[in-house]
UniProtKB/TrEMBL annotation:
Pfam families: Sulfatase (PF00884). The chain crosses the membrane at residues 20-40, 52-73, 80-101, 135-154, 183-200. This is Lipoteichoic acid synthase-like YqgS. Residues 286-573 form the Sulfatase N-terminal domain. Keywords: Cell membrane, Membrane, Transmembrane, Transmembrane helix. SUPFAM superfamilies: Alkaline phosphatase-like. The gene is yqgS. Its main location: membrane. It is found in: Cell membrane. Pathway: Cell wall biogenesis; lipoteichoic acid biosynthesis. It is a multi-pass membrane protein.
Length: 664
């Protein structure tokens, strides 16, 4: 039996531990809150500073992730808090690194393609900065403390080993009663924390969605805008919910009105796209080689550094080709795969994840499949792992006859992730020479991939003041890709296919280098928000026609969605029954180009959306004067842009092309 002093000291110890747990929980909340603030301070999207409501959301969302800690037995709570701290720290850290490269947060679909993260190797290392270590300081302290407490606990256990057990003679009635009280207390503590966390998170969010963030959860808001309302953890909760709903909910049947609205939109698009003019069928049965060049942007076309052209071969080829100087990439999170998808399907990529990964089995009207039906032999060429971006499955679904990947190439020129583009082009031409004509060949380059480090012996550009910077390495790598392009053209001539092949060359997306300063230094002028938006979204498009005809610069806006319908037009293959959204570059019609962020241009106006996605907080520019104009001028095209993105999202996620065709 315990005497009074023993009993008191036992309960005093328990009380201390209880208080210590409560104290540890508060410390945990503050630590994670601090880490969320560090993340926020590192974002480029920090147009909006965290106000006190955002702070409440942040703390509330941490409580929502941790209320269950109180349901654990006392002994488990501190270790569980520590493990949760590790998990949340890694989420914040992973988001931070991912954001630095992609300008976005990790979503469930991105996680499903996480195998690819390892491949980013060198890129990831260059995206981690020394101050990030702050995120891990408490974990290290926690580890030291855990070791210290563990040793103390072991010692005490050894000392108490022979002591009499205090409960062995306790009445079973008192023991049960006490246990029940403990269970009730624990349960209540967890519930109270959950309710508090829920109110702190959802209260302010509801307030936001009733005012400036109206429609937040209905529309396909951009992730950064979602984050600006919900905070990081809130964003992840919502993303998980959205993914589950989308995948467990089954495909919604299209209502008659929705079907009619979509069909009407496509009918109007068709009347703009399908045109019988002198270019229609002018290059019937030509071979086509399309090169999608990694991170190949438009701002350095025609430019020099220290008297040396960055892209001399492109510049030369431009003189006998059609060059689109106002051409936009329309990619989202799916990067290279989005450029590939949009160019071949003439649909927009999704707001989250890659269509290749998320919906490879749905029906699309894609260029390789249409060409195959028209007697072409079709091949995709990419000297990398075939599973990356789920290409193997997607290319089968797109009905490519061949997918030449890493295992089909001899690794005789090691650059960056894989084979150098010069060797890649040379070997691809050899592979093509075995195919029957006409052929369609889609080549994806890789040498100019972030972080743009080239072996010293292939560096031919003197990048002057940019030596040793990522920007300098970028220029160096595009200069190499340009040289490879020159060799490709020579190779085509030698192979005798130059005169019966349409050569298309375009960049897939930006280079992820978002700091304005090196661009200003390189271009020798200060850059406005409009300049920067165009620089980061424009990639070059070059179309070389077999007889060098129609050469010149087309300054009207164009985008990746326009490739498939335009090439089919040149070949004289009608797109009348296809569900395509892009422009036909040869129709002579005015063009409207919508980017995944809902930025858009019609050649006269250029709209940059605000991070909060409110139309009137966006910037509407007059491209004539390149100055801001009344935002109302952008309202009608803004609504059209949103409509297009929404129809495209519905088509892709709901497999609507199949449904619409079945209903005909
Ligand atoms: C890898 C290549 C790179 O196969 O397509 O993809 P990215 O990282 O640019 O999306
Ligand atoms: Mn890419």
């Amino acid at each position: 039996m315990l005497n009074y002093t023993q009993e008191r000291s036992k309960h005093g110890w328990m009380l201390r531990l209880y208080r210590a747990h409560f104290f540890a929980y508060i410390v945990f909340l503050l630590l994670i809150f601090y880490k969320l603030v560090i993340l926020h301070d590192n974002l480029h999207a920090r147009y909006i500073d965290m106000n006190w409501l955002d702070n409440i959301i942040a703390i509330g969302s941490v409580m929502l992730s941790s209320f269950w800690i109180f349901w654990l037995p006392r002994r488990g709570r501190l270790p569980a808090l520590w493990i949760l701290d590790i998990i949340l720290t890694f989420i914040i850290f992973a988001d931070l690194v991912y954001y630095r490269y992609f300008g976005d947060f990790i979503t469930v679909p991105v996680l499903l393609q996480a195998g690819q993260v390892g491949e980013l190797g060198d890129s990831i290392r260059s995206l981690i900065h020394a101050p990030d270590l702050r995120l891990f300081a408490d974990l290290l302290l926690g580890l030291i403390l855990a070791l210290f407490l563990g040793i103390r606990w072991l010692r005490r256990r050894r000392r108490d080993h022979n002591h009499y057990s205090p409960y062995s003679s306790d009445s079973s009635y008192r023991g049960k009663d006490r246990r029940l009280r403990v269970v009730i207390r624990r349960f209540t503590a967890g519930v109270v924390i959950f309710i508090l966390g829920f109110v702190m998170t959802m209260g302010p969010i509801r307030q936001y969605t009733k005012t400036w963030a109206a429609g937040l959860f209905e529309g396909g808001w951009w992730n950064i805008s979602l984050y600006n309302v919900t905070g990081l953890l809130g964003f992840h909760y919502y993303d998980a919910y959205r993914y589950t709903k989308e995948h467990l909910g089954g495909k919604p049947e299209l209502s008659a009105e929705a079907r009619q609205e979509i069909e009407q939109w496509f009918a109007a698009a068709k009347s703009r796209r399908v045109v019988q003019n002198e270019t229609f069928g002018a290059y019937k049965d030509s071979n086509i080689i399309v090169v999608q060049a990694e991170a190949f942007m438009n701002f350095m076309i025609g430019k020099e550094i220290g008297g040396q052209e960055i892209t001399p071969n492109f510049n030369r080829l431009m003189k006998e080709s059609l060059y689109y100087s106002n051409f936009y990439h329309q990619t989202g999170q799916g990067r290279t795969s989005d450029a590939d998808f949009s160019s071949h399907s003439s649909l927009h990529p999704l707001p989250t994840g890659s269509v290749f990964v998320r919906f490879p089995g749905h029906e699309y009207d894609v260029l390789p499949s249409i060409l195959k039906d028209n007697g072409y032999e079709t091949g995709a060429f990419h000297a990398y792992e075939s599973s990356f971006w789920n290409r193997l499955n997607m290319y089968k679904a797109m009905k490519y006859d061949h997918f030449y990947n890493k295992q089909d190439y001899k690794m005789d020129e090691a650059i960056g992730w894989s084979l150098g583009d010069k060797s890649f082009f040379r070997q691809s031409l050899e592979l093509m020479s075995k195919e029957q004509q006409p052929f369609y060949s889609f080549l994806i380059t890789l040498s100019s991939h972030h972080p743009y480090t080239l072996p010293a012996d292939v560096q031919e550009l003197d990048t002057e003041g940019f030596q040793g910077t990522l920007f300098g390495d970028y220029l160096q790598s595009v200069h190499y890709v340009d040289a490879a392009l020159g060799e490709l053209v020579e190779g085509m001539k030698q192979q005798g296919i130059w005169d019966n092949t349409i050569l298309v060359f375009y960049g897939d997306h930006d280079n992820s280098l978002q700091d304005k300063e090196p661009y200003e230094k390189f271009l020798g002028k200060s850059l406005s928000a409009l300049d920067m938006s165009q620089i980061m979204n424009q990639v070059p498009l070059l179309i070389h026609l077999p007889d060098g005809q129609h050469a010149g610069i087309d300054e009207e806006p164009a985008g990746q969605l326009d490739m498939a319908p335009s090439l089919l037009h040149l070949l004289g293959i009608s797109t009348e029954s296809d569900y395509m959204m892009g422009n036909n570059l040869f129709s002579g019609q005015e063009r409207f180009v919508v980017l995944r962020s809902v930025a858009f241009t019609d050649g006269k106006l250029y709209y940059i959306p605000s991070p909060d996605s409110r139309f009137d907080n966006g910037s509407c520019y007059d491209l004539g004067s390149r100055t801001l104009t009344d935002v109302e001028k952008c309202r009608i095209p803004y609504e059209e842009a949103n409509k297009r993105l929404s129809i495209s999202d519905q088509i892709i996620t709901g497999d609507l092309i199949r449904q619409l065709r079945a209903a005909k």
